[in-house]
């Protein structure tokens, strides 16, 4: 894998990666979708494709902390409806990575994120009272779950950028804050663990990347603890605005790089 080892990083480069690892923990327990900023930092410091392999174990560490924090709030009917579509998206993303270069990947993901944010904002402005997550049992709910699931699987495989796509789905499905965090915690733990064999097969995870992960994972924990503290102080409306804003920022970063 074409990546830098821990010993080849300068002080500011390691500090940037450490800050991104803190943000990974924060995004998992507070504002899901904020880790698109982490994605951009990793891709700026490391080779873009290699950065996804370094970031994945850190995301899994954050997922474990999020599950431990919000495990009682997961909505499993939604998860079971999403997983088959997500699996199809992961396979499509793996095939896409075989031939796509970094520029195509960044442009594609950035455009998808901005589209999802726009659709969510439009739907929330035209909707009446917030809907409950049980809407996934309807035909329209199942179709929406499948479409977002494929996009989420695709984006999480090619750039670890599935968080904003799934954030837009959970917001549009009417999830409140704790249900949102609990459902996304289990979703991404399962999906990210399932991605490990694909990433290793593509050469994105190896001994050097894991050594760098071992040095960075300690920064995920304080980020997650701060997120747990902060989420209880963020009201629902601000929470949704922060999620959408993080998605837009992440999409623009990918398009403008």
From TrEMBL:
Chief localization: membrane
Alphabetically ordered keywords of this record: Cell membrane, Membrane, Transmembrane, Transmembrane helix, Transport
Keyword field contains Lyase: no
Cellular localisation: Cell membrane
Topology relative to the membrane: Multi-pass membrane protein
Residues spanning the membrane: 49-70, 82-99, 105-122, 148-172, 178-198, 210-231
Family according to the record: Belongs to the 4-toluene sulfonate uptake permease (TSUP) (TC 2.A.102) family.
Name of the protein this chain belongs to: Probable membrane transporter protein
Taxonomic placement: Bacteria, Bacillati, Actinomycetota, Actinomycetes, Kitasatosporales
């Amino acid at each position: 894998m074409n990546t830098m080892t821990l010993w080849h990083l300068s002080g500011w480069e390691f500090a940037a990666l450490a800050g991104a690892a803190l943000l990974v923990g924060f995004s998992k327990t507070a504002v899901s979708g904020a880790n698109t900023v982490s994605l951009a930092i990793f891709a700026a410091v490391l080779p873009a494709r290699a950065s996804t392999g370094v970031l994945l174990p850190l995301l899994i560490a954050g997922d474990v902390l999020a599950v431990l924090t919000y495990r009682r709030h997961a909505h499993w009917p939604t998860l079971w409806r999403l997983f088959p579509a997500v699996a199809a998206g992961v396979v499509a993303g793996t095939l896409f990575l075989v031939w796509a270069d970094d520029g195509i990947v960044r442009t594609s993901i950035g455009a998808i994120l901005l589209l999802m944010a726009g659709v969510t904002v439009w739907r929330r402005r035209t909707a009446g009272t917030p809907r409950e997550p049980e809407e996934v049992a309807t035909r329209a709910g199942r179709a929406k779950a499948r479409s977002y699931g494929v996009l989420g699987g695709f984006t999480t495989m090619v750039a670890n950028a599935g968080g904003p796509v799934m954030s837009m789905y959970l917001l549009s499905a009417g999830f409140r804050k704790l249900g949102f965090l609990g459902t996304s915690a289990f979703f991404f733990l399962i999906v990210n663990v399932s991605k490990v064999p694909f990433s290793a097969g593509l050469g994105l995870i190896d001994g050097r990347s894991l050594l760098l992960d071992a040095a960075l994972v300690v920064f995920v924990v304080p980020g997650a603890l701060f997120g747990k503290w902060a989420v209880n102080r963020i009201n629902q409306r601000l929470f949704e605005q922060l999620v959408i804003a993080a998605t837009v920022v992440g999409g623009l970063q990918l398009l403008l790089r």
